[in-house]
TrEMBL record:
Species whose genome carries this gene: Aldrovandia affinis
Cellular compartment(s): Membrane
Membrane topology label: Multi-pass membrane protein
Keywords: Membrane, Transmembrane, Transmembrane helix
GO cellular component, one term: membrane
Pfam families: AA_permease_2
Record field: transmembrane: 31-51, 63-85, 119-138, 150-171, 183-204, 224-243, 255-278, 305-330, 351-369, 375-396, 408-431, 437-455
Main location class: membrane
GO MF annotation list: L-amino acid transmembrane transporter activity
UniProt name for this protein: Cystine/glutamate transporter
UniProt key word Transmembrane: yes
């Protein structure tokens, strides 16, 4: 049996169409409510809450406004999560942003989101988390001296390699790993919140005096403060990447998203209150590992545990990222917007092996260079541009197709508020940080010629190119022992 792939043909190493069963090759529905909550919380709570406080304070200018930014980012992220809960129950396909843009705005925006996910957003975000993992693993052994950057990058790559291996090996193992790491990272947050709140109750409030000092206010940089805060909340949309694998999605997607976002918002605000109770704004800004500095002052007997817990938290976010992100590439390839090889599943492991492996070398290259906050700002423009477009598409789809089934429907005021605020942040960031956001915009638009020259006009590519591409695809398919899914799951 043969299948057209980007203008050519590639052999399918699979049997005739199979019925659902133990031997059929497809991604099973194995994600229950607990696993769904673990995916959302586990990918939201990663390195962000441990590195973003510095960025939020730096760009907001004072303690009071930074706390307000944290609360508003939580509310805005919850609004966005509710919109995605509606999208996830309205369109039962995996793929998150890609799928929703395809269904509401058309193939070009969907392809551009797929394009920028691979070459910019996912590698940048994953690199930030992995570098934070490396820093928290290595730094305690060199304190008070700075840790060697090369050693940090080596451990960052080891963490990435571990989660790639887990996600290639088994979906169930990746899911169980995510649940375990999520419980550990929530314990880490509690360990930070409790000492800070106890100190606050005892009257240690001097760091909150003149909290809204206007002398240090930097309004033109405020969108970057929101970017840093929203980065820490990033991940609320990750469950939508695996919609086809969620048990009873009409119930479990909205329930897990609402519970997770309320929990995370409360925890994040309390964590930052704890930071400011124990540390001054100046001390927080000069610290490269805020949680470690905090632990040294409040948990003398357990201070060495905090870096371990933070590293585990980052590892959980990495695992969740490599669990969900390949599903977008998988769905895009299944729809013909990506080479068909990446829509294939390992015949025994039942994992999207090619899609998982595709991200690995790109992340390795990104880890090798880049500064944390530059990477956050660089990726945030494209990410939030397409999120804004997806929720705008949801509103357009509501108007055009009012009879379309929507098991969960978010109030229109919430959807409009989120969309308008998101577009405002995206637009204003071009003024605040034109270099990084402009570069991100250019990389996004670089997908337009790829779409028209390769996808739309693939039949016009030289025959020798197509034949070589198809030959390589077939050999890789045989080498990785992968076939296309044999059961329709949407």
């Amino acid at each position: 049996m043969q299948r057209s792939e980007m203008g050519g043909k590639v052999e399918e190493v699979k049997a005739d169409e199979a019925k659902p069963g133990k031997e059929a090759v497809y991604l099973r529905r194995k994600i229950d409510l607990l696993a769904a909550i673990s995916i959302v919380i586990g990918t939201v709570v990663g390195s962000g809450i441990f590195i973003a406080p510095k960025g939020v304070l730096m760009y907001s200018g004072n303690v009071g406004l930074s706390l307000l930014v944290w609360a508003l980012c939580g509310i805005l992220s919850t609004f966005g999560a509710l919109c995605y809960a509606e999208l996830g129950t309205s369109f039962k396909k995996s793929g998150s942003h890609y799928t929703y843009l395809l269904e509401t705005l058309g193939p070009l925006p969907a392809f551009l989101r797929l394009w920028v996910e691979l070459i910019l957003i996912r590698p940048a975000v994953t690199s930030v988390v992995s570098l934070a993992f490396g820093r928290y693993v290595v730094e305690p052994f060199f304190s008070p001296c700075p840790a060697p950057p090369v050693l940090i990058k080596i451990f960052a790559l080891l963490g990435v390699s571990f989660v790639v291996a887990v996600n290639c090996w088994s979906v169930s193992l990746a899911s169980r790993t995510q649940i375990t790491l999520t419980f550990i990272k929530m314990f880490a947050l509690v360990l930070i919140i409790v000492p800070g709140i106890l100190a606050l109750v005892r009257g240690q409030t001097e760091n909150f005096q003149n909290a809204f000092d206007s002398g240090s206010l930097t309004l033109n940089k405020l969108p970057l403060a929101f970017y840093a805060g929203l980065y820490a909340y990033g991940g609320w949309f990750n469950l939508n990447f695996v919609t086809e694998e969620v048990i009873n999605p009409d119930r479990n997607i909205p329930l897990s998203i609402i519970f997770s976002m309320v929990t995370v918002t409360v925890c994040y605000v309390l964590v930052n209150v704890s930071y400011y109770t124990v540390m001054t704004a100046g001390e927080l800004l000069v610290s490269d590992a805020v949680a470690v500095t905090f632990a040294d002052r409040t948990l003398q007997g357990f201070a060495s545990v905090i870096p371990v817990l933070v590293a585990v938290s980052c590892l959980g976010a990495l695992n969740g990222s490599f669990f969900v992100a390949p599903r977008m590439l998988f769905v895009g390839a299944r729809d013909g917007h990506w080479p068909a090889l990446f829509s294939m599943i390992h015949v025994r492991r039942q994992t999207p092996l090619p899609a998982v492996l595709l991200l690995y070398p790109v992340v390795v290259l990104m880890v090798a260079s880049g500064e944390l906050f530059q990477l956050v700002n660089f990726a945030s423009f494209s990410r939030w541009l397409f999120i804004s477009m997806a929720t705008m598409g949801m509103l357009i789809h509501r108007f055009r197709f009012p009879q379309h089934p929507r098991p969960f429907k978010v109030p229109v005021a919430i959807a409009v508020t989120f969309t308008v605020v998101s577009f405002f942040i995206v637009g204003f960031s071009l003024y605040s940080d034109p270099w990084n956001t402009g570069g991100s915009c250019a990389i996004t638009l670089s997908g337009v010629p790829v779409y028209y020259l390769i996808l739309r006009r693939s039949a016009h590519l030289p025959h020798c190119w197509r034949r070589a591409f198809n030959y390589c695809s077939m050999q890789l398919q045989i080498l990785m022992e992968v076939v296309e899914q044999e059961v329709k799951t949407y």
